[in-house]
Amino acid sequence: MRSVLIIGAGRSASSLINYLLAKSETENLHLVVADLSLALAEKKTQKHPNATPIALDIFNSAERRAAIEKASIVISMLPAHLHIEIAKDCVQFKKHLVTASYISDAMQALDEEVKKNNLIFMNEIGLDPGIDHMSAMKVIDEIRSKGGNMLLFESFCGGLVAPEYDNNLWNYKFTWAPRNVVLAGQGGAAKFIQEGTYKYIPYSALFRRTEFLEVEGYGKFEAYSNRDSLKYRSVYGLDDVLTLYRGTIRRVGFSRAWNMFVQLGMTDDSYILEGSENMSYRQFINSFLPYHPTDSVEIKTRLILKIDQDDIMWDKLLELDLFNPNKKVNLPNATPAQILEKILTDSWALEPEDKDMIVMYHKFGYELNGEKKQIDSKMVCIGDDQTYTAMAKTVGLPVAMATLLILNGKITTPGVQLPIKKEVYEPILKELEEYGVVFNEQNVPYFGYNPDLF
């Protein structure tokens, strides 16, 4: 049997493992699911006859190399910074590699060796990055095949809670890594291009500069800019495009509310708060407020944020129980961002019966035969439950499908790559539709921007 080594059995691996197990008989597969926690690997493989759960510490080079050497292909579902040693072993033992992570500089540096060994190192084949690349390139290639010239490309994606479980004032719950949500947008100004002009949004203003989107059947959304929208300009062949913007989707009102944390300094991860372990939630927010001999913490908060007591923003803060003097942080040597993450997790954790939702929205503006046109492409995916979430499906299924296509010789281009070639995106997008990941494309009037006002 063909051996598929999956390293990492976390949340994103659920649908991936389930897909490959379902195909294991017809495709002659045996899965080796490796995780630091043997119990987790056992839980994900469900005693399937074509799966072997193993405990694996990837920092134990002998264990790691032994597991990789036996595999026909390797999937790494670990955090991105942990892929590189696995990748080097894959080069040595001549094994194909699939990951859902962004291509790091260290990974890209292996490209020459990977090609020399006729190997495929497929990266960025999850949701975002992944499905966004594939669905975008499909339409861009179609426009070009008709002789169209790209003018505008905007791409938005967000992980949210499904509408029927959207029951807090923030219209948000954590469907993935909370830390990434808290730190979103930090590390430099957001950069994009509009009507041929470079635009920059500093972190301090990021959540007050949003675009609005409408998705039929699901209502109105907003999006704030990703840090670097221009990263894929050359990769997509859009060097001459006039407008290129990528953003993160939230429900309307979230960004304005989140901006309160940014302005107070509660999302900062660069320093430690003294005495954080014994700090109450009330003391935490008060540590960012000026001293006043008579004003309460509540009054000081409203004054500094310039919000009235009947403002919905105030109700959102109250809902988080931020002013509770009895709730303790219980985190030693914690940064503001770590404490905020703890507070939000108390309020925004998914309940056992909750389902998550992925929303993706692309806009393609182009010129054909002297006429400006636009295609809007929208996708909404709802999770099945807390194991097979929409996030797990949209991250794990493309990884699994790419793995099988590589094993079966359907993807043949060697090298360190992302899924922008037709041999990759065409079969995967088609099969994803069977799992409820469907893009609805509409021809709409060209939007563009008024060049006199940019």
UniProtKB/TrEMBL annotation:
The UniProt entry, under InterPro entries, shows: AASS, NAD(P)-bd_dom_sf, Sacchrp_dh-like_C, Sacchrp_dh_NADP-bd
- Saccharopine dehydrogenase-like C-terminal domain spans which residues? 126-437
Q: Which residues form a coiled coil?
A: none
Stored Pfam families: Sacchrp_dh_C, Sacchrp_dh_NADP
- SUPFAM superfamilies with a match to the protein in the record: Glyceraldehyde-3-phosphate dehydrogenase-like, C-terminal domain, NAD(P)-binding Rossmann-fold domains
Q: Where is the Saccharopine dehydrogenase NADP binding domain?
A: 4-121
Question: What keyword terms does UniProt attach to this protein?
Answer: Oxidoreductase
Q: What is the name of the protein in this document? A: Saccharopine dehydrogenase C-terminal domain-containing protein
Q: Which organism is it from?
A: Flavobacterium ginsengiterrae
